[in-house]
Protein 1
Amino acid sequence: MKTRALLLVLCLAGLATVIWPPEVMSPAQEELIANAPSEGSGAGELLDMSAFEEELIEPEVTAPLVEEVVAQAAEVAATQEVDLVQGSLKGRDQGALALQGELLAHDPGAIEAYLSSSELHPGRERFLGACAHIALEQPEASRALWATVSEEDPISSAERATLGRLLGDGGAVPASAGVGSNALLRGLEMAYMRGELRRVLQERDYVSACGLLSGLLEMELDAEWPTHREALETWAKQLKDAQGFHRWSARGEWASAEYEVRSGDSLVAIRKRVIKDHPGLNICTGLIARANQLRDENSIRPGDKLRVPLDPVHTRVDLSARFLLYYHGEEVVSAWPVTIGKDGRTIPGEYVVGKNKQRNPAWWYQKSGYEPVAADADPHGRGFITNDHPENPLGSRWIPWDGTRGLGYHGTNDEESIGDEASQGCIRLRNRDVEELYDILPVGSAILVQP
């Protein structure tokens, strides 16, 4: 810009010289000069022009012309500045960042085609290329391309710091670390985590694997792009397998209270004793059995050493993704696809698991809001479906939400509906999934339902 400005000044100076000559003379002055003595006719005599100074022509017409030229030059310079700024901003709006993040997280091989069609700033292209190499697990290629990016290139400090960190250390990235509102950085972090996941699974480091899978599930649900349900289901399956060596293993690394089984003990009695020693702990016998890999709640013997989980249990339902996450503390332990209420009948908010959990529940249809289906009738003429009826829409388990009018987690007689908006407001799970949730979700556990 400094060079363009200098050229503009020089051009204006030349124009001014043409418009305003050093001396503009009247006809009388020209005649006087024509009749002036030639050299040598009057040695040393100089022409006195003072008498004619008032007759100089003022350049009244030329001033507006110069102003117009200056204005045009300024407009050109301003346009060039705008073009430069727009070029540096192209590909950095929220929509573009979301697409770039989605490609990095789920389809990094498509980055090259995206760059060839986007006409981004060259420095921005190199940055995205370096990110793609990270996603493709090619750190050396990423490092080489990143070295060509200059400080003047349109890359934010957060983007520089994130890519530099991922190239500078080989440690696992904490879930949701530093992504802020930048969807591209979310995708880059997720891409890196996928590579780390592959590595730690090969090394059978299941603690790290569970942490990475927990982070991937959460970050996908919170992402700015449309949810990739296939990825969620893949990660949920991997998490289930990995947790068999972590949260669902007595040898796993998780916060616990140890208890040695006494003669005459039951899991109910053990639960009460542990809660007495840990006031506020919310635990159920099914969770103790699952954490210790017991065949059932009665398969304990005196002298057995049990571990009772201490991390608070809670669940999260994401309505847009139609997915349920089950937590111990801040770590996702299990995840399942679900069916949500049709026509917005599942209301976002905070709920609590109620007391009346039921195995093989009977279903009572309500005359307002529910259509009766083929059902058995009780002796009093009230419509309901028995717990073993094939058309019972509650499936094999019922987990109520306290303080609501009939909302809860339950199974289904129509597993094809999982993933749809089809219920009257409840959250449906496949029967095998709700049976697992029923066993490990204590009464009083927090439930978060988000849009």
Note: The chain has 14 helices and 15 strands.
Protein 2
Amino acid sequence: MRFTLESGQLDSKTSLDKNTDDGFHTSIDTPSMIESYRSVPVPTKGRFFSRFFAFLGPGFLVSVGYMDPGNWATSIAGGSEFGYTLLAAVLVSSFMAILLQALCARFAIATGRDLAQACRDSYSRPVSFILWVLAELAIIATDLAEVIGTAIGLQLLFGLPLIWGVAITAFDVFLILYLQSRGFRWIEAFVVTMILVIAVCFVGQLILAQPSMSGILSGFLPSPEIITDQRMLYLALGILGATVMPHNLYLHTGIVQTRAYELDDAGKRNAIRFATLDSTIALGFALFINASILVLAAAAFYDRGHGAVEDLGDAHALLAPLLGASIAPVLFAVALIASGLSSTVTATMAGQIIMEGFLRIRLPLAARRLITRGFAIIPAVMMIWYFGERGATELLILSQVVLSLQLPFAVVPLVMFSADRKKMKNFRAPAWMLVLAAVIAVLVIALNIKLVFDFLAG
């Protein structure tokens, strides 16, 4: 395979030919959207930091999915009702995410394929088609959460009616177009900037809330109450089930290949090491932000005796009187908008990877964005129109249930492919990593099945 760093494009004659010994049975004849971005040069020699910096970025795009608006309501409900106790659930879910994303990086670099391509190459057409439909539903559900989260943020910050905020989110296609024209590093820079905005906003709110440090430290230790208390268990399951997002697995296996690393064994081994470090650090930031949401709710509501708060709008309205500072709700709204905007970019790229990988259909990112956003805006407008603002909250919860349904269909193929020595060759993950990944897959499936049943029963 040849590629030119100057143009950032794969050679037009490039083809990933079928290898008879790699476990895949289909060739990939044309460069994908992600391969066309493969223009970030990777030094083969030099200091550790210079080589690591070349890989820094994809992990932060992935981390956005672990702090998107869909996670906020559950963390706020858990912190306001049970204080710091459910921080253990946040910590466990983050460890699960770190391991699964490390597996994604290893698989993509070892095989040169993203998860969608691998599913298409390894399964029959009917199975691949079903997996594609489920993956598209997950993208729409993710986008739905972003639409509602951004609209709520605009309402909280500017007083816009929710239905107007939903309509405004359609114009983020211009943001996608601009970033695409500037190159992949600009996309990464925008997302990292949004993450920093979210982090700064929560640091400011935590300073105002003055949480209990002893409560935070004890909250990271698992408590028997999480299992024995039915309501606490439900919220813990919600935190675990809503954290590991299926589209992130497809996304990471695609964007990690934007780096122009050497394709020999030594080059791949270094790429795996640096890509894993990148995602681990980025997901550490995601852990901080997710924990901050719960800690803020615990300090602002639980410690002050207010009780359970489940609605984002209610949380925003209560911050100023409880914390005694008018800047607190502003920081909350800004962080929510930044979360929605950053998720917009990553969900669009994940959708493109899924469409190209399963169907070999390549659309411009703007067209892809308009299609996905259209499927998200229509139900959002209908729910808000008929049921009012309460409908937006219900739709946010529904989007998480849809994601829960799809998750096993992304996790299980990833674990199976990663354990296949024929596909992974010299880069098959260590046994302990595969065992943990299998345990996580079973746990995620069980937790998500319970979430779905609880939702239907409720």
Note: The CA atoms of residues 147 and 182 lie 25 Å apart.
Protein 3
Amino acid sequence: MNSNSIERNDSTPRPEDGGAVLRQTVEFLAALAMCVVAARTFAVEAYVVPTGSMAPTLLGVHREATCANCRFRFVVGVDDEGRSGRLVCPNCGQDRRDDDATIECDGDRLLVQKFLYEFRSPRRWEVVVFQSPHEPSRSYVKRVVGLPGESIQIVAGDIYINGSIARKTVSERRAARVLVYDNDYPPADADKFPRWTPRRGAFRGPSRSGWTIAGTTLRRDPLGKIATQIAGSPMNRHMRLIDWLEYHHFAPDRTAYGPIRDFYSYNGGDLTAENHVDDLMFEGEFAVEPGVDAVWIRLIGGGGKQTVRIPVDGRGAIEATTDGRSRSVKHALNGVQSTPPGKPRWRKIEASTFDREFTVLLDGEPLLDPIVDDTAPGFGKVSAGAPLSIGVEGTGRVVVRGVKLYRDLYYTPNLLQTPRRSIAVEKPYKLGRDEYFVLGDNSPISNDSRFWPKSPVIHGDDLIGKPFLVHLPSQAAPLKVFGRATYWIPDPTKIRYVR
């Protein structure tokens, strides 16, 4: 079980008194030290994250490895006794049994903005640092999900407030997402276990596909009028010729194809993910050449098969369906424009089914108004088919790069492999005045509001502040000196704001 606490970082350097140092330098360092002390006392304080209750957003003490199969870097947590789970790559699923190449790392170091909540209240999905109401000597870090006066319940991994699902903004979705597959790290065993396959016609006939996978790039070359055919297209009364490329998920904890579940590599491969997740997010960059009528994106999640048609060069309109049913499209943009061969203009497309809401962004702007599904979620239902498909309508060339697939946080009804009764799962829990419900991002092992025996809430007086920056990341980067020895230093690319 995870303690989920964070610790103050009291290792702030102090200026030394050196006789050879110029007087101005000494005065400057003294003033700087006074400023640091004042900032820590009145505005900002540094903390260390020792545990993994907020992984992958914030990392505790862990071991870091690089997958030999896909070169993806990942981490696995270390407990108080120095033990860690089995190394399993979350990107390709390879089981790493050798521990020789791992790097021991401390937890992330945070800067926390103190006294912010003296001026405003915490917001939903905001990460906060607070004094534990049950262990006053310890400070915890969690994400706020329930606000004062609300009735909160966890239903099928989502948060419901006063009977309605709590949805996230674009920035909140990006902050909460968990990486499932990154095509910039293609597995070496893709010939044996293909992650991408063309769909060869409505009846698996002899139709050829123009799709090829070249390293980190997905490429659809022209085929004239030969393309795969979508069966019974619900978009129009006539059949559309669409060349589909489908992603097949290789479940890391099962080393086999299967649906996307709430797997955390941080928890190790010995802890099997128990819950199917269909809140997905796709992102990728597209370069479209003349001859393409439309680009299609399909995600299985958010209440069904969500499909969007993005027209090219004004050929038709933006269309969307859920399980083949046409959906009303409002405030849609004009789609994308093609560019001549050799002069690509890359357009970023993001599609998401988080919180039973289908959204599509083009270069960060909404392509259409969100399509929501407020029907009751299906329990235990696993949607069949490829979780992600990319389609091309027309005869032109399309190149796709930077493809990534994410899932949403899934809030579990219990701690992993622990039959402990949880709060706000079987029935809603009503929050009182100045009471907040907080959860960890690494839900399977997070000891949070769901399980606190005395009271599941924190109060406004418990709040310490808001962490806003990982100023000293725990993840390491190699540093070679004279091309020989390798030293490991904190990875500067992992310095980040806490969303």
Note: Confidence is low (pLDDT under 50) at residues 11-19, 201-206, 226-238.
